[in-house]
């Protein structure tokens, strides 16, 4: 095995050189391109929690042993889904073996590439990886009908459920978000409940932004259990939801602060989800300020009164935190 850093890809990538001698594995250029896109997945950590190891049989995803937390496993799951979509678009499906080494809890998955003809959906999600992110603001147009069913279906195929709280449940969720934002403004010890060091909570990479309109909605991604397998599934489902939203012309922001406090996670599970699921991520979703994109009916839409701006590359580990003010 030799170290091989892909262009722009943080994290360790170890590659067995002899794999390039066989046609049964993606060539170096294809694998590098796929890993470049995989690391655009969201993560709360300043450094990536994932480690890639490539041999003649599989791409193996490992968790950084210094990041043995729920959030890190979710980030790894999102990166794995990004990688699977990227490889699929390049002509390689993946057979995934999750947690293949019981004696090694850091070995999250092995992905065996097999030749594949990409589907239209895979190509669309692949394109969404580079377009996701951009303007911090949301537009004023209401969300398109049918979006919730689509993102829910994508999440369900990966083992997670999308919840859209309404009425009193939404009020409880908003209160938890605002309380988490207040807690964030107060210095806390590094060994606080939730496991993330104070400096990570102060400047996480996943987006936290002020709400500016009342046309957005809050979604909760939940799983039936709260173990590492569920966290990995949640990460894959989170990636699928974010990319699907981007593909139909919607913007998303992940609100990290409530999930960093175990007491608030319990509050959300009990009073918002009715103990049906364990909350793993909170997503704010709405129209972007300006895009020419397709809504759920395939109609081109642009938010009126705004100026179109290019959708830039999402840069993990670089976005500042802001307080989570959510409209009631």
Layout of helices and strands:
Layout: E1 2-3, E2 13-15, H1 28-38, E3 50-54, E4 59-63, H2 70-89, E5 92-98, E6 107-115, H3 120-131, H4 147-156, E7 161-163, H5 167-184, H6 198-202, E8 217-223, H7 228-247, E9 251-255, H8 262-271, E10 278-286, E11 293-294, E12 300-301
Parallel strand pairs: 2-3
Antiparallel strand pairs: 1-2, 3-4, 4-6, 5-6, 7-8, 8-10, 9-10, 11-12
Task: Describe the structure in your own words.
The chain is an alpha+beta fold and 328 residues long. It has two domains: 2-127, NADH Oxidase (3-Layer(aba) Sandwich), CATH 3.40.109.30; 134-301, 3-Layer(aba) Sandwich (NADH Oxidase). 32% of the residues lie in helices and 18% in strands. The chain contains eight helices and twelve strands. It has a six-stranded mixed beta sheet, with helices on one face. A four-stranded antiparallel beta sheet has the order 7-8-10-9, with helices on both faces. A hairpin with a 4-residue loop joins strand 3 and strand 4. The chain starts with a strand and ends in a 27-residue tail after the last strand. GO terms for molecular function: oxidoreductase activity. It comes from Nocardia panacis. This is NAD(P)H nitroreductase.
């Amino acid at each position: 095995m030799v170290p091989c850093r892909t262009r722009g890809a943080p994290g360790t990538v170890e590659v067995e050189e002899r794999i390039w001698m066989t046609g049964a594995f993606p060539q170096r250029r294809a694998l590098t391109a796929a890993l470049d896109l995989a690391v655009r997945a969201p993560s709360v950590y300043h450094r990536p929690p994932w480690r890639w190891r490539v041999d003649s049989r599989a791409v193996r995803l490992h968790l950084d042993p210094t990041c043995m937390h729920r959030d890190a496993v979710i980030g790894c799951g999102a990166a794995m889904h990004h990688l699977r979509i990227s490889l699929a678009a390049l002509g390689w499906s993946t057979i995934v073996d999750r947690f293949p080494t019981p004696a090694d809890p850091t070995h999250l998955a092995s992905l065996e590439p097999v030749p594949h003809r990409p589907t239209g959906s895979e190509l669309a999600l692949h394109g969404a990886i580079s377009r996701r992110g951009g303007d911090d603001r949301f537009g004023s147009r209401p969300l398109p009908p049918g979006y919730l069913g689509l993102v829910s279906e994508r999440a369900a195929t990966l083992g997670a459920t999308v919840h859209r709280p309404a009425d009193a449940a939404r009020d409880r969720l908003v209160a938890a978000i605002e309380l988490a934002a207040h807690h964030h403004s107060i210095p806390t010890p590094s060994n606080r409940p939730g496991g993330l060091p104070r400096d990570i909570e102060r400047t996480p990479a996943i987006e936290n932004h002020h709400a500016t309109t009342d046309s957005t909605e809050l979604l909760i991604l939940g799983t039936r259990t709260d173990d590492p397998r569920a966290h990995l599934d949640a990460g894959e489902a989170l990636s699928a939801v974010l990319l699907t939203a981007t593909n139909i012309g919607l913007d998303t922001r992940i609100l990290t602060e409530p999930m960093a406090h175990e007491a608030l996670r319990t509050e959300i599970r009990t009073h918002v989800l009715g103990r049906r699921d364990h909350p793993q991520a909170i997503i704010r979703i709405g129209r972007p300020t300006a895009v020419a994109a397709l809504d759920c009916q395939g109609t081109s839409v642009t938010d009126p009164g705004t100026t179109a701006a290019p959708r830039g590359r999402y840069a993990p580990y670089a976005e500042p935190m802001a307080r989570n003010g959510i409209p009631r």
